[in-house]
Specification:
The structure is a homodimer of 226-residue chains. Chain A is an all-alpha fold and 226 residues long. Chain A has helices at residues 2-11, 20-40, 48-54, 59-65, 69-94, 101-111, 116-124, 135-159, 167-186, 190-196, 208-224. Chain A is globular, with a radius of gyration of 20 Å. Chain A binds a DNA duplex (30 and 30 nucleotides) through helix 4.
DNA sequence: CCGTCAAATGACTTTGAGTCACTTGCTGCG
DNA sequence: CGCAGCAAGTGACTCAAAGTCATTTGACGG
């Protein structure tokens, strides 16, 4: 009886979310729990039933909020990605002094520190997440992405005068490619981690932040040296 | 009765593969059929039961040759990847005249034309394929990869004198990252293709070969300009 | 305080990977 | 020549997890 009340208090939400505000809150709870599970394991290992349990909901309820597992994770990625864009944009806008390629590279790499979930999800985007999802959801996502890309791309262009008209977004796309690729190499399945721990495998071990900074710096130097 | 003989003739393999040679041939049949299905669809859409059917085998038999679906696709990737390494190496070894960054970039991009399956699989490697596979198989794969990376890396270094000691393999890793990332952006799920077909989505459309050539050229220019 | 109705539920369906007790084709030996 | 032995092959079965939906129930309006 006591625990019953306690559980209720813990979630601090009416059992039925009727107001849009409450629905939004419940949605957030689901996303948060999914994220926690994902951080601790992998996409494949996260079970919708577990997400439901952690969110103190029945499985069916989760499917009321997200029609498929892919849709849930795409929504999660959307949150993280646009939060990151905003953060990067802030760093670029408010950074004083002269901007150079290496500085930009460092800023980007730093802005991605502790964002492992974001970059891991990014690597899943086209191969997994966009597979079992409605056109509508993908459209919304891409629309949003386009906007962020153009906006932050313009900021990048303003900061690095050697960039030509329209190259900002292009740099961001190459950056996206590098991030996706490097994350895949740096973030390993347990089996792989074990294998790469062997001494002679050292050349295959990748330090995400380090390599990203290096590659992006080189890429920007290549654009400047043109 | 007739069809029975016909079926036998078609596969041109004894029903029981006892010799190692026959086992190898059967293994190849399975890999080939899996590849065909994958080319036409996606990893998730390829069913082991279908692979078996196409290979004129029972489902259980496929699992005799590959312990899991992931193992099958990892083996497939292994074949394609090392064939590509060999091809690239050949192009680099036998190419006459002076080598420059742009030339290398073009050579690489061309060597990847028509290799969509390879690059698509590459994008699945760490996120999917290395998830449900034995340490042993991963070790074999990585061992092989390391060897190819060092060998072809050395060839690259020889061709581009502005590269410093040991930078060849590093360039190849960044290349790998770009390939993985760009393929993900260029190779789209049907839903995504539909969305990006909208006129205003043009900036998000990616031409794989073009972008790869551009990014790699820039990256190499960045190394040369140092 | 009750009628209404959308939110929530969880038993059920479906799908597909992976298993294993049984069957059968091949080969070598008597 | 045929048949014993055995590894290759089989497919019905198990199991796990996504996704469905008929039924239940809590909150709000009257």
């Amino acid at each position: 009886m006591v625990s019953h009340t306690a559980a209720k208090a813990k979630r601090a939400l009416p059992q039925r979310a009727r107001k849009d505000e409450d629905k939004e809150a419940r949605r957030r709870v689901i996303l948060d729990e999914a994220l926690k599970l994902y951080e601790a394991t992998s996409y494949a290992a996260v079970k919708m039933a577990d997400v439901a349990e952690r969110a103190e909901l029945a499985k069916g309820t989760v499917f009321l909020y997200f029609p498929t597992k892919e849709a849930l994770f795409l929504a999660l990625l959307e949150d993280l990605l646009f939060a990151w864009f905003a953060k990067l944009d802030g760093l670029l806008e408010h950074g004083e002094g002269r901007w150079t390629g290496p500085r930009l590279a460092r800023t980007v790499a730093e802005s991605l520190e502790g964002q492992e979930s974001l970059t891991r999800l990014l690597a899943l985007l086209q191969t997994v997440l966009e597979q079992n999802v409605t056109v509508e959801q993908v459209r919304k996502f891409k629309e949003h992405l386009l906007e962020a890309l153009l906006h932050t791309g313009a900021t990048v262009e303003r900061r690095l005068p050697f960039l030509k008209e329209g190259e900002g977004p292009r740099v961001l796309m190459h950056l996206h490619a590098l991030v996706t690729g490097l994350r895949q190499m740096a973030d390993l399945a347990p089996v792989t981690r074990e294998v790469l721990a062997l001494p002679h495998m050292a050349p295959l071990r990748v330090d995400f932040t380090g390599e990203l900074t290096a590659a992006l710096t080189t890429l920007l130097r290549g654009l400047e040296a043109r």
